[in-house]
Amino acid sequence: MKRFSLLFRKTSPVILMLASTCLFAQVSKSSQTNNNRMQIIQNNRARLTELYVDVLNNRKFERLHEFISDDYVSGNNKTGVDAFKEPALAVLKAIPDAQWEIQNLVVDESNAFVHWKVVGINTGAFLVFAPSGKNVVAEGMGIFRLSNGKVISSQVMTDRLGFLQQLGVLPEDITTLSADRISPEAVVFIDKFVIPDGSLTEFTNRLDVNRKMISTMPGFIDDYAYERKDEHGNTIVITVAIWKDEQALQRAKTNVQELYKNEGFNPAAMMQRLNIQMDRATYTFRGLN
């Protein structure tokens, strides 16, 4: 018993020292891991802030490759740096003085949530809609995945309804778009245009003129315009004009032709010159039974 006690006294400091060393190593490793994690988070936060506040707001698009991976994938599965830049350019076309203001930014090692506002004046065309000259505040949010300090994918959601309402494209009370306000006698005049890339600007300028023209005519109820790109790079534009009845539509057609004549404008010649294909038809309104 005495020999065992002496042995314990001799070896216990060594054992304690080894145990302490192991414990210190574990604590040190955990602390280092935590420090690395915090450094990555701080770096991701700083880079996303710089992406919006400096690169987008100051139009330094040549720096996008510093923040966006070459393998970036957007929410609609487009790839590359240009896939990130494309929606930003669409905003700037409609709001040339746009400024992004970060409202909330939550970041971890590989993910980020960004809530922003875009503020500015709508002095540029948006799709086929003429500039409204109105101040707009458009909100949006994005969920980003990051790797090595670069964005590799994103899912972006924006308040498109609010944006279109601010532009005046849609009414503030969208219930006024209900089919209940359209009588059974109403007719819908629908045009479909297939427009080559080089002809789009002249076409949309003329479309803006025509839409303003018909909006002042008796029997006009409302109109809409939609566009998309086809697989050949052409722009497909659909225009929809709703008239009180067939008589109102026919009067409008007569008035438009008279205005064209006074202006010296030949729409058929323009379509042929710009190589634009058009399909036109009149529909009656069909509500739900």
UniProtKB/TrEMBL annotation:
Superkingdom of this protein's organism: Bacteria
What's a Pfam family this protein contains?
Answer: ABM
- Which SUPFAM superfamilies does the UniProt record give? Dimeric alpha+beta barrel (SSF54909), NTF2-like (SSF54427)
Q: Which residues form the ABM domain?
A: 192-252
Against InterPro entries, the record matches this protein to: ABM_dom (IPR007138), Cyclase_SnoaL-like (IPR009959), Dimeric_a/b-barrel (IPR011008), NTF2-like_dom_sf (IPR032710)
An example of a Gene Ontology BP annotation on this entry?
polyketide metabolic process
Q: Which UniProt keywords apply?
A: Signal
Q: Where is the signal peptide?
A: 1-25
PANTHER family in UniProt = ESTER CYCLASE (PTHR38436:SF1), POLYKETIDE CYCLASE SNOAL-LIKE DOMAIN (PTHR38436)
Q: What is this protein called?
A: ABM domain-containing protein
